[in-house]
TrEMBL record:
It comes from Sphingobacterium thermophilum. Pfam families: Big_5, DUF3131, Glycoamylase. Residues 47-133 form the SbsA Ig-like domain. The lineage of its organism: Bacteria, Pseudomonadati, Bacteroidota, Sphingobacteriia, Sphingobacteriales. This is Glucoamylase family protein. Residues 312-525 form the Glycoamylase-like domain.
Length: 541
């Protein structure tokens, strides 16, 4: 019994010694009652100055001796020095970094629970605050004239279509990581980019014609399906690369986007052999086959899965050009009823609602991604173009201004959106490819959206161009012009370039400057016939 008593007594003595060796064990705690950065409070801190003022207010006076090792600022694991100022009662601590922070960067401030009050209490818990710094408003490149800037953007972006084209075929790679995979619609944009480059003197007209001949030679031997081309090809072999499991054959919309470029090239280069080849390829497309015995056109047909994709091209989207080219075909034309019942959905394409005080004639709520008002109008001139459903000049301008107005309103409070930083369209994002729009907003801005809209909204697009080049150029300007997308809210900047995003930038700027691609395309008899057959009116037909 005595033995047990001695053991218990020794145990209690050891516990007592252990407690007395921890000077804070019996102490109560104190609290942080206010945390602010540049007078901002809450849980999200974005757009913070590069020399921020950080304010801590505690419910008890802090011990000034141990604050430096218990309040620390980090960036990517690197610790930044801090200066501390104290109020007369030592309850308020004002902190400034010793050096300016980097713009558009993420930092975190740690306040450790080992921070001690003057009266000995310990901080109730560790605090960790993350904040991101603001855009650096200084110019990243020397200022040049607007005309010089437009030329520079066209020239640099053209490099994607010239230097990075597939060496064997001349076709355009889908993206800068695509290897041998080339894209049909993007190659149509590439042909129009080549025309623009030849006209601007980036290459000679002879060089441009030889490259287009190389592309056409490849297309003549590439896999075709009832005359139509697939979405992707192997640039060496001309064999179809499936876009998805059942999308392993004809892609009629990609085919139309390709011919938008080829028909413009036929007029520009005016070479007999090239003209004959382009005309033969166009006339071989069995547009009427793709009705699938219905009214309207279907996007896909597969030699393996036939019509299983079952995607009818109807409603307002990027494919108006398809119906115009199909209607104008001298060999396999569609009827006006295909346009009315298919594309126009018997008037179902109309909208007519007001968004931000702007009437939207056609399309989905708030317009959808901007590419749907751009792709068809790289060749089709919307100025003065009308049918019973819309004035297309009004349509493309209204859609663009609604997109911009939405970004200015910024209902999700994404950092960086403004009257100069706007434009939602399909592009890469921080979590994969997405069709960004006012109804699918992830905080991602795509340069192609505003820049390709320059023919419709010149002042607004030029403002965006200058902001993106001068203020963000160190982050988004690269080897092939503007990179695909960025999010100032997420501090994410793409490394990618996509043909279908780069091409409309060059072409849109050229149409703004000279109307060259519009003029060439609208001269084509097939285009005039197609528009007339579908009851469009235009001063250009």
């Amino acid at each position: 019994m005595r033995h047990i008593f001695l053991i218990v007594t020794l145990f209690l003595i050891l516990i007592g010694c252990s407690k007395s060796s921890d000077p804070t064990a019996d102490r109560s705690t104190f609290s942080l009652t206010r945390f602010a950065i540049d007078e901002k409070e809450g849980n999200i801190f974005k757009g913070i100055a590069i020399k921020p003022k950080i304010t801590l207010i505690f419910d008890k006076a802090v011990d000034k001796k141990n604050i430096e090792q218990n309040v620390e600022l980090f960036y990517n694991g690197t610790k930044y020095g801090l200066d501390f100022n104290f109020s007369s009662d030592n309850k308020t601590v004002t902190i400034f970094p010793k050096v300016n922070l980097s713009p558009l960067s993420s930092y975190h401030l740690v306040i450790r629970s080992t921070l001690i009050a003057q009266s000995g209490e310990r901080l109730d818990s560790e605090k960790d605050y993350t904040f991101t710094t603001a855009i650096d408003s200084t110019d990243k490149f020397p200022r040049i004239s607007t005309e010089e800037l437009l030329t520079k953007v066209q020239r640099q972006t053209f490099s994607y279509f010239w230097d990075f084209a597939h060496p064997a075929s001349g076709m355009i790679r889908e993206r800068n990581t695509s290897g041998d995979v080339v894209t049909t619609g993007g190659s149509g944009f590439g042909v129009m980019a080549i025309i623009s480059a030849a006209e601007r003197g980036f290459i000679t007209k002879s060089q441009g014609m030889e490259r287009v001949k190389k592309i056409v030679s490849f297309l003549k031997s590439a896999d075709r399906y009832h005359g139509a081309f697939s979405h992707w090809y192997n640039g060496n072999t001309g064999k179809t690369v499936p876009f998805s499991q059942k999308d392993d054959g004809a892609d009629l919309v990609e085919t139309a986007l390709l011919f938008q470029g080829l028909l413009a090239a036929r007029n520009y280069f005016n070479d007999i052999a090239l003209s004959e080849d382009i005309t033969a390829l166009y006339n071989a497309v069995e547009w009427s086959f793709f009705r699938n015995n219905q009214k309207g056109l279907f996007w896909h047909w597969s030699p393996t899965y036939a019509w299983d994709m079952n995607l009818k091209v109807k409603g307002w989207n990027e494919a108006l050009i398809l119906y115009v080219l199909a209607a104008g075909s001298p060999t396999f034309p569609i009827d006006k009823e295909d346009y009315e019942e298919g594309w126009a959905n018997n008037g179902g394409i109309q909208n007519g609602s007001l968004y931000y005080g702007i009437t939207l004639p056609l399309g989905p709520e708030r317009g959808g991604p901007l590419f749907i008002s751009q792709y068809s109008f790289l060749g089709l001139n919307p100025h003065g173009l009308k049918d019973k459903y819309a004035d297309y000049e009004l349509q493309v301008r209204s859609h663009t201004l609604i997109n911009r107005a939405y970004c200015i309103a910024n209902p999700h409070n994404f950092y960086g959106y403004s009257a100069q930083c706007w434009g939602l369209t399909a592009s890469d994002s921080y979590d994969g490819y997405s069709a960004h729009s006012p109804t699918n907003d992830r905080g991602v801005i795509s340069p192609t959206a505003a820049l390709s809209s320059m023919p419709y909204t010149p002042e607004e697009s030029l403002d965006a161009l200058e902001f993106m080049y001068y203020k963000l150029g160190d982050r988004i300007w690269g080897e092939y012009g503007f990179k695909d997308a960025f999010s100032l809210d997420k501090l994410w900047f793409a490394d990618s370039y996509l043909a279908i995003d780069q091409g409309p930038i060059i072409i849109g700027i050229e149409n703004y400057r000279s109307g060259l691609l519009w003029s060439l395309f609208m001269q084509c008899p097939e285009v005039k016939n197609g528009l007339t057959k579908l009851d469009f009116t235009s001063p250009n037909i």
